[in-house]
Design brief:
Layout lengths: L24 H22 L13 H4 L13 H9 L7 H11 L4 E4 L6 H12 L9 E4 L3 H14 L7 E4 L5 H7 L6 E4 L1 H9 L10 E5 L1 H4 L5 H9 L6 E6 L4 H10 L4 E4 L9 E7 L5 H11 L4 E5 L3 H13 L4 E4 L5 H13 L4 E4 L12 E6 L6 H8 L9 E7 L4 H11 L4 E2 L12
Parallel strand pairs: 1-6, 1-7, 2-4, 2-5, 3-4, 5-6, 8-13, 8-14, 9-11, 9-12, 10-11, 12-13
Helix pairs in contact: 1-3, 4-5, 5-6, 8-10
InterPro entries: DEAD/DEAH_box_helicase_dom, Helicase_ATP-bd, Helicase_C-like, P-loop_NTPase, RNA-helicase_DEAD-box_CS, RNA_helicase_DEAD_Q_motif
Keywords: ATP-binding, Helicase, Hydrolase, Nucleotide-binding
Organism: Cafeteria roenbergensis (Marine flagellate)
């Protein structure tokens, strides 16, 4: 298959990011819209209850496809219903490449930008290959954080709503006895963080000897060394001929070493000629430390914020900034790793529901969290390292939509700013006096 060879998508990397432009962008978007119209008509004939259509502008990150339809992959009717009712019309580039190869049972190593449809790219093949009549764990999906585990399990449940597939999510910070009780019943797909899943395997509660699929999302984080022992234990509990899928935006040496040790001639998909999403416009504001809160107030007053995520570099600064924002008269939640899991879950779900406009957080919230109403990301504290920066700003501009990233830069951050520009082959411009809303609100 074509996907067994590395594929490069999109235009060559340029010095600037921002709104996709040029002769190729408009025809791609128009073609995608036309294909989407046809897909909706077919879905309606199937009896699917379709959500309201998302008519916002989309960039080539998700529209520059080969023109395939979900029906081309011979998916189960019940799964197609879930796909259409989720609001998906046609596959994105990463979905076009991963889905047919993964359905065939091959190992897959896929590198694609955050926010381009990676989650559905592995969820759809997993659901296609699961047999609901076989009452045992058939797939294990590993995520690095509790919030991402909850989000991914929700996507699996939504896509598989007509399939009678039981999806269980298990993470640390929740009562172990509840997980043990749920595993006494049939579970087809187990989603969770490595520590908790490995614990369930050790206890004999999560029986994975017949699980034929193992998925690592955000593989770079999972294989960074923090979870090595747990991951090895989970792998040992599974059959030797299991299928493995690794997906991430970045592939450091640890991922390549893992591929060589555990994967069997994986199909490699690479859609990463440029690292930053085409739809994210990036600016920096040069400020003194004591001016940051006032700068934030100005941004809130001038920008058209649907929802924003504001990053700080420490737990104490998160709580302090959230308090200052509330004192300024703006609704605000905060979230960080030291909070009780029940409180983290509540904040996560309330923010997703739109109960507040602003969320202050640590890097806990950089991985894969997909909230498409977030159109502004603010680095109140500038991050260290291009990888963290890339994951932070990727919280806006999800699935080809437009977004804005504003970085507050002090004297000590200048060197890091330059280094990140060089590593990502991007340009972070000085913030103008007025920002055209069309670059982040279309």
């Amino acid at each position: 298959m074509a996907a067994s060879e590395p594929r490069s998508g999109g235009a060559a990397a340029t010095a600037a990011t921002g709104v996709a432009s040029g002769a190729g962008a408009v025809p791609s978007a128009a073609a995608a819209a036309s294909a989407g119209d046809a897909a909706r008509k077919r879905a309606e004939r199937m009896g699917a209850t379709l959500p309201e259509r998302d008519t916002r502008f989309k960039t080539e990150d998700v529209t520059k496809t080969r023109g395939n339809d979900f029906e081309d992959y011979m998916l189960k009717r019940e799964l197609l219903m879930g796909i259409f009712e989720k609001g998906f019309e046609t596959p994105s580039p990463v979905q076009e490449e991963v889905i047919p190869v993964a359905i065939s049972g091959m190992d897959v190593l896929a590198r694609a930008k955050n926010g381009t449809g990676k989650t559905a790219a592995f969820c759809i093949p997993v659901l296609q290959r699961v047999d609901p009549s076989a009452e045992h764990i058939q797939a294990v999906v590993m995520l690095p954080t509790r919030e991402l585990s909850l989000q991914t399990s929700a996507v699996l449940k939504e896509l598989g709503r007509h399939m009678e597939v039981n999806v269980m999510v298990s993470t640390g910070g929740t009562p172990l006895r509840d997980d043990l009780a749920r595993l006494c019943k049939a579970v087809h797909i187990l989603v969770g963080t490595p520590g908790r899943v490995a614990d369930l395997v050790r206890r004999g509660a999560a029986k994975c000897s017949k699980a034929t699929m193992l998925v690592f999302d955000e593989a770079d984080k999972l294989l960074s060394g923090d979870f090595d022992g747990d991951i090895e234990e989970i792998i040992r509990a599974m059959p030797a001929d299991r299928q493995m899928m690794l997906l991430s935006a970045t592939f450091p040496v640890a991922v390549k070493d893992f591929r060589d040790a555990y994967m069997r001639s994986p199909a490699e998909v690479n859609l990463m000629e440029e690292l930053t999403l085409k739809g994210i416009t990036q600016y920096y504001a040069f400020v003194e430390e004591h001016q940051k809160v006032m700068c934030l107030h100005t941004l809130f007053a001038k920008l058209e914020v649907r929802q924003s995520i504001i990053f700080c570099n420490s737990v104490s600064r998160v709580e302090l900034l959230a308090k200052r924002i509330t004192e300024m008269g703006f609704s605000c939640f905060y979230i960080h790793s030291r909070m009780e899991q029940s409180d983290r879950n509540r904040v996560f779900h309330e923010f997703r529901k739109g109960s507040t406009r602003h969320l202050v957080c640590t890097d806990l919230f950089t991985r894969g969290i997909d909230i498409d109403t977030v159109n502004v990301v603010i680095n109140f504290d500038f991050p260290t390292g291009s990888e963290t920066y890339l994951h932070r700003i990727g919280r806006s501009g999800r699935f080809g939509h437009l977004g804005l990233a504003v970085n507050m830069i002090t004297n000590k951050d200048k060197k890091e700013l330059f280094a990140i520009e060089q590593e990502l082959a991007t340009e972070i411009k000085a913030i103008p006096r007025e920002i055209d809303r069309s670059v982040y609100c279309m």
